Amino acid sequence: MGQVERAGTLVGVGVGPGAPDLLTLRAARAIEGARVLAYPTLAGAPSFARSIAAGFIREGVEEVAIDIPMIPAREPAQAAYDTGALRIAAHLEAGRDVVCLCEGDPMFYGSFMYLQARLAGRFAVEVVPGVTSVSAAAAVAGLPLGAREGRIAVLPATLPDEALAEGLRAHETVALMKLGRHFPRVRTLLDGLGLTGRATYVERATLAGEVVRPLAEAPAEAPYFSLILVTKDADPWL
Amino acid sequence: MGQVERAGTLVGVGVGPGAPDLLTLRAARAIEGARVLAYPTLAGAPSFARSIAAGFIREGVEEVAIDIPMIPAREPAQAAYDTGALRIAAHLEAGRDVVCLCEGDPMFYGSFMYLQARLAGRFAVEVVPGVTSVSAAAAVAGLPLGAREGRIAVLPATLPDEALAEGLRAHETVALMKLGRHFPRVRTLLDGLGLTGRATYVERATLAGEVVRPLAEAPAEAPYFSLILVTKDADPWL
């Protein structure tokens, strides 16, 4: 009993799409007050989530970097989350809260979910929601996501063509995520569906180097932090 | 030339799902610095967006309340936005920025889009994205919205049964918005699809009086600020 009552809380904090002032007040306070911070890194690269939050991180805070290998197989990433969860659990068992930094929103394609799945049964979990990359892209592009009876779909571009085409057919607005190496295929698909003229490419929304342009004028390669917004209904909100 | 250069900017500010500390830092600063605030009210009731932002509103700020009639026909609401846009335009023409408060995110089923559509051609527009009610509901329910190849749909419950059923079939996660008088019909539909056990009801997420419970245990009536999260894949994130 005593041990459970003294255990720390796992706090998943969304740091938003990139601009530090798009953190919520709650997120900023949680990070400023943290004694232990955890965050993912990809194949040893600096953590994007940490870089967004850097201005709120106090000196001397303990940091748990969970390095995720960038290989297609799932097992090595799962092993990395297993190890990361063990390191976090040690802090929680010692009564220390652990603030886990997440790009965007923790529940929206975030790595936090993998930690939550491993720890929620034993420890208290809190989630501070954040601004997603989809909301950020809509804001910088000036494009409504949904109004009235409009349907919105969020689809990873890693899905096969048929699944993407079905989603594009059935929704007024579609956000295509995780473009990466699927970008050329998705462009061909949108062209074939006659939707290129309705598609906007957004890269690094709200960050330095932000790119917002019609898909037809997009660069040949899409980095990880990019997405396509397809808004089929040109005037849905008048 | 001179007039255009001196014109004010229309700033759509998302105030998030309800808790005042879920405003972004950028939103809080925009509101604190505003000389003119605009916001919708529904049929004369107090503005929910204004109540979320109240702690950041300075004394003496000019306020433009745009009252939207609560009737099914679209024309009276359109007329109200027309009038509101004219009142806002007068401030913008006089060189005053106008900060428009929006529940959640301005581009996500927000009334801001109706003002933007009327004013964007003549005035500069900026959008400060916010945390949506969907992210807030996922946070308080501890439910992932999407991971890996998971597809997410956001569907207004005002759509006919067939459209809702198609969306529920094709996506791992569905957020059903705008429940209101459609709530009993949606519950019957989910029951028929065998999805009640996968459905979570969330009301007033992050606010006093928050309700989070399995749909089977939801109250009989759903207020405006409620939604259902259907998460079909029980363990998508391990």
TrEMBL record, chains A, B:
Pathway the protein acts in: Cofactor biosynthesis; adenosylcobalamin biosynthesis
Superkingdom of origin organism: Bacteria
Pfam families the UniProt entry points to: TP_methylase
Methyltransferase recorded as keyword: yes
Domain Tetrapyrrole methylase: 9-213
Any single biological process term in GO: methylation
InterPro entries, A to Z: 4pyrrol_Mease (IPR000878), 4pyrrol_Methylase_sf (IPR035996), 4pyrrole_Mease_sub1 (IPR014777), 4pyrrole_Mease_sub2 (IPR014776), CobI/CbiL (IPR012382), CobI/CbiL/CobIJ_dom (IPR006364), Uropor_MeTrfase_CS (IPR003043)
Molecular function in Gene Ontology: precorrin-2 C20-methyltransferase activity
Top enzyme class: transferase
Keywords: Cobalamin biosynthesis, Methyltransferase, S-adenosyl-L-methionine, Transferase
Segments passing through the bilayer: none
EC number, UniProt record: 2.1.1.130
Family according to the record: Belongs to the precorrin methyltransferase family.
PANTHER family: COBALT-PRECORRIN-2 C(20)-METHYLTRANSFERASE (PTHR43467)
The name this protein goes by in its record: Precorrin-2 C(20)-methyltransferase
Native organism: Rubellimicrobium aerolatum
